[in-house]
Automatic annotation (TrEMBL), chain A:
Main location: membrane
Compartments it resides in: Cell outer membrane
Cellular component aspect of the GO annotation: cell outer membrane
Listed InterPro entries: SusD-like_N, SusD_RagB_dom, TPR-like_helical_dom_sf
Entry keyword set: Cell outer membrane, Membrane, Signal
Organism, scientific name: Pedobacter insulae
Family named by the database record: Belongs to the SusD family.
UniProt lineage: Bacteria, Pseudomonadati, Bacteroidota, Sphingobacteriia, Sphingobacteriales
Record carries keyword Translocase: no
The protein, known as: Starch-binding associating with outer membrane
RagB/SusD domain location: 314-502
Annotated SusD-like N-terminal domain residues: 93-230
Length: 502, 1013
């Protein structure tokens, strides 16, 4: 009997010990693995660079809050293209922009707002991390800061053109600041953009190595700064813009830029980062993405899939979704121009050779060619629709040539130089010289840069939008800007104010 | 003249010794209890003294002492439900003194009742418990809800098997191993489990051996065949072509030649349902158990094998399960008991998509045009494109499966060909076990220590060969993928319990501590371009270029620790009280809020034990009880309270397009994240009437506060908002259970019925937030449900359908205040939609809650009968007060087929006021708006089980050395009464209440045999 009692006591004591062991505080304080804590990341240049890459990532995004790929979307908003798709209820946000009947709920504004502010948030974060770091080399720090500031300026440039009054957020927000940000005027936003770009000039290399193509170069930053100056429609800034452009455009410039002899080769996917490219957003089928719920996670260009011919069967091209058919207006403008064949796919000619595709909404039988889905580049891994390796050229030399010519004329600069620039763009495709007038430059931009996403903002900044797009629904005093997303007004309880007209 | 007498008390049922039986001299206060071997010794004052033997759950017995000869007492179970013992958290209680809301199903109820999953055995048997199958596919799980949906985030019940919390459901259990199942429905009964108990607790006890020294061997087998209960009446090929032409004319009135100039040439066409369904799908089951023991030790071991084919796409829809179990208990010394339970399960399964518009076999069979042949046998066609120049799928004779000639669209493909392309399988190995030591320090004071483990390995593989099913569904490169995963859950629980009776005052106290850890690792990989053409030959071991390889994985980790206490008191089993408090700590919350405290209390009053209650033969027993308590929920993802960074924010750099890794924060953090809480109030009564009618009723009100939702932050923040405690909802309901027993000579029967009413309501979703978006269907994302303030979770949401316009005058008369037509695009035969908000136009603001997928009322009926060697069971189950959204047809694809209901379409004035006209362009949005057009009454009553069995007489079997032989015939889902026109009105799973080709439950016929040695 005595032995039994001892056994009982022993077991009880062991049980109690177990209780105390389990009560240790560490048991509930766990550290995640497989995911990294923000607080202990960013410890070295490798990790810091991964933070910088995440800012670049946002430039590729085309499917935030719906499809918001810039080039086709802005082409649909302009007189270059229609919205297209299968019907007016396919992608209503695009149809609304095409017709300028957006509301605070319908339109591409939600995705564009969130995309750009995501980029700004990431840029602010990495700038903060870099500033606090004590282990970075001066060279790394200088370039990384320059890149982050360039990118922040890049995102704000899109925001200010699309929305006008947007909050200026230059650091990470504390919880008490999340709901109280107010809007700055476009002038204030542009001032910050200029500042960021000027700061960036000091840290960027003139030439980026082949292995790093896609990172921002000094030439790209100068071109962007000059473009920002031009877009403010302030004649007192145009002289500086022209000077900056000249540095980029001159023969023998230190950035290696020159016009590509064959116009069509600019857009050849086997000719990425060619000598005409100044700011290019790369795409690939690396990561071979397949998640329809988060297309942004991949590296592909969905805009390419978007504009392809629906259910296309035939040579050269791959099937697409039938968006952004080219307007007959643009077709007629280009039909006698040597750039037609490189810019527009003539669907009827393809049909005559035996190809087939479905005629979709607003079909004209003409389609965008510059970034069309080519059979040779269709991905064999992942989901092909999400993995088109077709890059987006945001700024190229012909664009800066024409912008410099414009800046010179508007600032009273050299008309001779303006003519040289305009003539160079035209001569490259075998066209004769014409007088260098503003109207001729604007007309040339339409032909040279068609479907590349420039037309809409060119019309707005030059005051021609009402005349050209008015019949399509554009209203002065309203349609220059998208509506602010209604959720933004709701969540801030009215601190963020809606744009006029909406 | 005192006399020392001694003796032994055993159970009459199996002869096992009964420890702890109270032996008391009648009229006196003195007594003893039997020991572990059932033996006792007591001194009585004289001969003629009456001894009273009593124990919970057993009928009292008396014995008059005549001399000092050993006394042998055989005790029997107390007659009536209220003498039953129910398992409550960390213990048991006599049902008559329970103050919480508990329902019980016993092994005898489940015996010889084949089900593929244990949960199905609960369906229709208990009130307050809603069980809906995820699909009828073998191996697919069920949705269980106790008293409605408790949380937006997670309403899964908590499973406790032999004291161990189990993740991933209880499908791994073999049915024959079950001893009992209890459902703890209210806070008083569930609160002892704290975290996750808010959604209700299901406690499963597995069988043990017997102490009578005998070995029992039992073998049970059944074989069955399954078939679909019904098929849809779809249009045949001629009808399809005719109606397609009509729709085309409606879109283009001056059309000269329609798509199908001569519809009759197509005849009947292909019956895709016949191709997809299997009218004779096999099912078989085998169970062997061996149990035995002696006074010191008992054991129970069993083996099971289950194999089931699906009735839809049998080649790709199968489930196999193997189980093994070993349970034992050992009385080490008088005061020390050791026990363990361990079970192993292996499953292999192949499955198809179900209840989805994106390419399930049933969805394809419903929507595929009947003109396309199952197999193309016309040489002129199969020698032409695309058969001649594409890698089309062929049958064993080399003939190609039919491909639609420009009729079918998108995911609507030849379902048989698509099945041949979708090769894959899944498997799992699971070990669930526990061991415990129980020490009785002094009488009534016990210390129990238990450890439990749930170790699971699971994975799957899939192979997609090179194929061509349609221009948009083809691939020129094959893909093999495989995943392997491991999960480990362990728990450690220690309790101290004390039981004391002082005259008629009965006390029990329990204090406990619990720690749990849950962790897992996930691995996956895929290869493309393998030099093989089928799953069997595929392997991750092949060498392929780096760009054709992809590997990934993940981890999860969370912990929980808890302290809890319970005190119960009753006076003469008449006045009853229970108090519980529990403190839980979860690793999922920030430092400020890791702990939650969850108290509860309950009370009861047995009215019939009052002196003033008159003795009568009508009300034999009456108890009134009430309870209130708070429970918690931490079922959110891990580490939501801190800011983590992740990859997947990559960029392509360089002329050779190299991938550069990008990292950034996932979301804002919320250090204040805390427990979601559910409070539950319950009032109930239990009664026995006329000696053989049992009645239980419960009223309850559950409220969940602080439900975890993502906090909305402005878009300018540039990142996702964190998780916060925001939303509230309520469930109110009423439950009733009735039982009736009767014996007429050799014939005896029992009828049991139960019913539940529940109302679910969202009361708060955050400041100024009125709804959460719900389910969307079709690629266009048509919003079909919404969780809206003031309505149940997941209510159907859409336009109000006010009949059809019969003529142009109707359309012209439907105007707004400004005199403009409300539906200018409408034509006669189109739906008239209501301008609910009276703003003069029909738009998204005219949507409202139009229905509820959750039944108001759920009920079940069980009928058992026995006559000599024959026995019969009938189980019926039903629901009412809910709707089903019938989305069987892909109305976004104009060339989808229809059921013959479309023949009732509007074809002229007065021909219909419900079914709109046919047109290809749907310019009035008849079919592209969610509206009451798609809602059908979801009520049904189903005879789930009908079984007739026969047990051979003992006189025969004994001669053969067999204890028992019983064979039976059985049918499942024999008859279903419903107005619903789809395959099966019982639609559960992820899109609750929406039918997109729900894999129906089969009608099954079984023959079975049970042999005991």
């Amino acid at each position: 009997m005595m032995r039994n009692k001892n056994i009982k006591s022993t077991v009880a004591i062991v049980a109690m010990l177990l209780i105390f062991v389990s009560c240790k505080k560490d048991f509930l304080e766990l550290t995640p693995r497989g995911t990294t804590l923000e607080d202990n990341f960013y410890k070295n240049e490798t990790e810091m660079m991964q933070g910088v890459i995440s800012v670049y990532d946002v430039m590729q995004w085309g499917t935030t809050g719906g499809y918001t790929m810039k080039m086709p979307l802005l082409s649909a908003a302009s007189d270059d293209c229609w919205a297209g798709g299968s019907s007016a209820s396919d992608q209503p946000n695009w149809v609304a922009y095409d017709n300028f009947n957006m509301s605070s709920f319908v339109g591409p504004q939600g995705g564009l707002w969130n995309k750009n502010f995501s980029g700004i948030n990431r840029a602010n974060l990495i700038l903060s991390k870099i500033e606090k770091s004590t282990v970075l080399s001066a060279g790394f720090k200088s370039r990384a800061v320059a890149e982050a500031k360039f990118l922040r300026a890049y995102f704000y440039f899109d925001l200010v053109r699309w929305f006008g009054n947007v909050p200026l957020i230059l650091k990470e927000l504390t919880p008490s600041e999340l709901y109280t940000q107010t809007q700055s005027t476009p002038a204030q936003v542009y001032a910050q953009i200029e500042k960021d770009l000027r700061d960036a000039l000091t840290g960027l290399p003139p030439v980026v190595s082949a292995a790093e193509k896609g990172r921002i170069s000094l030439g790209a930053a100068k071109a962007q700064l000059a473009k920002v100056l031009l877009f403010q429609n302030d004649n007192t800034k145009l002289a500086e813009a022209a000077t900056l452009f000249e540095d980029i455009n001159r023969v023998g410039n230190p950035y290696g830029y020159s016009l590509v002899t064959d116009y069509a080769e600019i857009f050849n996917p086997s000719n990425k980062f060619n000598s005409e490219s100044i700011l290019e957003i790369p795409h690939s089928n690396n990561a071979a993405w397949g998640d329809w719920g988060w297309i942004n996670g991949g590296e592909g260009n969905v805009g390419t899939q978007f504009i392809g011919m629906d259910s296309y069967v035939g040579d050269t091209y791959s099937s697409g979704w039938g968006f952004c058919p080219v307007t007959l207006d643009l077709v007629n403008a280009l039909k006698n121009d040597p750039r037609f064949a490189a810019t527009i796919i003539d669907g009827k000619a393809l049909k005559a050779t035996g190809a087939t595709y479905n005629a979709r909404y607003q079909n004209t039988d003409y389609f965008i060619k510059k970034y069309a889905p080519l059979k040779a580049y269709r991905s064999t891994i992942g989901t092909p629709e999400q993995n088109w390796p077709i890059n987006e050229i945001e700024i190229r030399l012909a664009d800066t040539y024409l912008m410099q010519a414009e800046a010179l004329l508007r600032s009273g600069g050299s008309a001779t130089r303006a003519k040289e620039l305009l003539d160079a763009v035209r001569a490259r495709v075998g066209l004769a010289s014409i007088p260098a007038t503003l109207d001729n430059i604007y007309a040339e931009r339409r032909l040279e840069l068609a479907t590349e996403g420039h037309r809409f903002f060119d019309l707005v900044r030059t005051g021609k939008a009402v005349a050209v797009l008015g019949p399509l629904g554009y209203k002065a005093g309203k349609s220059e800007y998208l509506p602010i997303p209604q959720t933004e007004i709701d969540v801030t309880k009215g601190v963020i104010k809606q744009n006029p007209g909406y | 003249q005192e006399i020392d007498v001694s003796g032994r008390v055993t159970a009459k049922s199996d002869g096992s010794p009964l420890p702890g039986v109270s032996v008391v001299i009648q009229g006196a206060k003195t007594g003893v209890a039997t020991n572990a071997d059932g033996r006792f010794s007591i001194r009585v004052p004289k001969t003629g003294t009456v001894l009273v033997f009593s124990q919970i759950g057993l009928a009292n017995q008396t014995f008059t002492v005549n001399n000092n000869q050993p006394i042998n007492i055989q005790m029997v179970d107390e007659v009536g439900a209220l003498s039953e013992i129910v398992v409550v958290g960390y213990g048991t209680q006599k049902k008559s003194v329970v103050t919480g809301a508990i329902s019980q199903v016993k092994a005898s109820d489940l015996e010889n009742m084949p089900v593929t999953r244990i949960e199905q055995s609960l369906q229709g048997r208990t009130s307050g418990l809603t069980i809906t199958t995820g699909s009828g596919q073998p191996g697919d799980g069920a949705t269980l809800r106790v008293r409605g949906t408790t949380s937006i985030n997670n309403s899964e019940v908590l499973y406790i098997v032999d004291g161990v919390q189990v993740g991933g459901g209880i499908d791994y259990l073999n049915q024959a191993d079950i001893e009992s199942i209890e459902v703890l429905k209210d806070a008083a009964s569930a609160a002892i489990y704290g975290a996750r108990a808010a959604n209700g607790v299901i406690i499963v006890s597995t069988k043990k051996g017997s102490r009578n020294g005998k070995m029992n061997v039992n073998y049970h087998t059944y074989l069955g065949t399954q078939a679909p209960v019904r098929k849809l009446e779809l249009l045949n090929a001629t009808q399809f072509a005719t109606l397609y032409n009509e729709a085309e004319y409606a879109r283009t009135p001056n059309l000269v030649t329609p798509r199908f100039p001569n519809p009759s040439q197509y005849g009947v066409g292909t019956d895709w349902q016949a191709a997809v369904f299997n009218d004779n799908a096999k099912v078989q089951n085998h169970e062997l158990s061996i149990a035995g023991g002696n006074e010191k030790s008992t054991y129970y071991s069993s083996f099971g094998y289950f194999d089931q084919d699906g009735i839809v796409a049998t080649s790709n829809s199968q489930y196999k399960r193997f189980t093994a179990r070993f349970n034992s208990e050992h009385q080490i010394t008088k005061g020390i008991k050791f026990g363990q339970n361990i079970g192993y399960t292996r499953t292999n399964s192949i499955g198809v998509g179900t209840n989805t518009e994106y390419g399930s076999p049933l969805g394809r069979a419903i929507n595929m045009d009947p003109i396309t042949p199952l197999i193309e046998t016309n040489p002129a066609k199969y020698n032409a494109p695309p058969y001649s120049n594409q890698p089309v799928v062929r049958n064993s004779q080399g003939l190609p499966y039919g491909i639609s000639e420009g009729i079918a669209q998108s995911e609507i493909l030849n379902p048989i060909a698509a099945l041949a392309v979708a090769q894959g399988r899944g498997w799992s190995d699971k070990v669930v076990g526990n061991a415990f030591v129980e020490v009785e320090l002094i009488k009534g004071l016990k210390i129990r220590s238990q450890g439990g483990v749930d170790l699971a390995f699971w994975g799957g593989e899939g192979f997609t060969p090179i194929h061509y099913l349609s221009p948009t569904f083809s691939t020129t490169v094959n893909t093999y993928s495989r995943n392997s995963n491991r999960g480990l859950f362990w728990s450690l629980e220690n309790t101290i319990s004390y039981q004391k009776s002082i005259q008629n005052h009965n006390f029990t106290a329990l204090i406990g501590y619990s720690a749990q850890k849950n962790k897992g690792e996930l691995h996956s990989g895929s290869l493309q371009g393998l030099p093989v053409d089928n799953l069997k030959d595929a392997s991750l071991g092949f060498s392929v270029p780096k760009e054709n390889r992809d590997f990934g994985g993940g981890e999860y980790l969370n912990t929980l620790n808890s302290a809890f206490a319970r005190l119960t008191y009753d006076f003469n089993e008449k006045y009853l009280f229970t108090g519980i408090i529990r403190r839980d700590g979860s690793s999922r919350f920030g430092s400020n809020n890791k702990y939650g405290i969850f108290p509860s209390g309950s009370a009861g009053w047995v009215v019939t034990k009052e002196g003033f209650f008159p003795q009568n033969n009508i009300v034999n027993f009456l108890k009134i009880r009430g309870s209130y308590g708070i429970t918690g929920n931490d079922q959110i993802g891990d580490f939501r309270y801190i800011s983590t960074v992740s990859g997947g924010r990559n960029y392509t750099l360089g002329t050779s397009a190299g991938l550069n890794i990008g990292v950034s924060p996932d979301a804002l953090s919320n250090p204040d994240l805390q427990w979601e809480e559910t409070s539950s109030a319950d009032i109930g009564l239990d009664a026995t009437l006329f000696s053989n009618i049992s009645l239980t009723a419960n009223w309850y009100n559950k409220k969940t506060t602080g439900m975890l939702l993502q906090i909305a932050v402005p878009g300018y923040v540039g990142n996702n908002g964190p998780i916060g405690n925001i939303a509230d909802l309520t469930n109110k309901g009423f439950e009733l259970e009735l039982g009736y027993n009767k014996k007429l000579g050799d014939f005896s029967f029992r009828v049991a019925a139960n019913g539940s009413f529940v109302k679910n309501n969202i009361v708060f979703l955050g400041a100024e937030k009125e709804f959460l978006e719900g389910q969307k269907i079709t690629p266009q994302g048509l919003e079909v449900t919404r969780t809206k303030l003031g309505y149940p979770i997941g209510s159907f949401f859409g336009y109000r359908n006010e009949g059809l316009f019969q003529n142009q005058t109707d359309i012209n008369n439907y105007k707004n205040a400004a005199g403009s037509l409300l539906q200018p695009n409408a034509k006669p035969g189109d739906i008239r939609f209501a301008d609910i908000n009276n703003d003069g136009k029909i738009d998204a603001d005219d949507r409202e809650v139009i229905g509820n997928p959750t039944p108001d009322f759920t009920y079940g009926i069980t009928f058992n009968a026995a006559y000599k060697g024959f026995d019969m069971v009938v189980l019926g189950q039903g629901v009412s007060g809910n709707q089903i959204f019938n989305a069987l047809r892909r109305f976004d694809l104009p060339a989808s087929n229809y059921t013959t209901d479309i023949l009732s379409r509007w074809t002229g004035e007065g021909t219909s006021n419900t079914m709109p006209r046919l047109t290809l362009d749907d310019s009035n949005n008849n079919y592209s708006r969610s509206s009451s057009l798609f809602l059908e009454d979801g009520a049904y009553f189903r005879i789930k089980t009908l079984q007739v069995g026969y047990t051979l007489p003992n006189t025969l079997t004994k001669k053969a050395g067999i204890n028992k032989i019983r064979f039976y015939l059985m049918a499942n889902n024999l008859v279903t009464f419903t107005k619903y026109k789809g395959y099966d009105p019982e639609i559960g799973g992820g899109s609750y209440g929406i039918d997109r080709g729900f894999y129906p439950q089969a009608r099954t016929f079984y023959a079975g045999l049970n042999v005991g040695f």
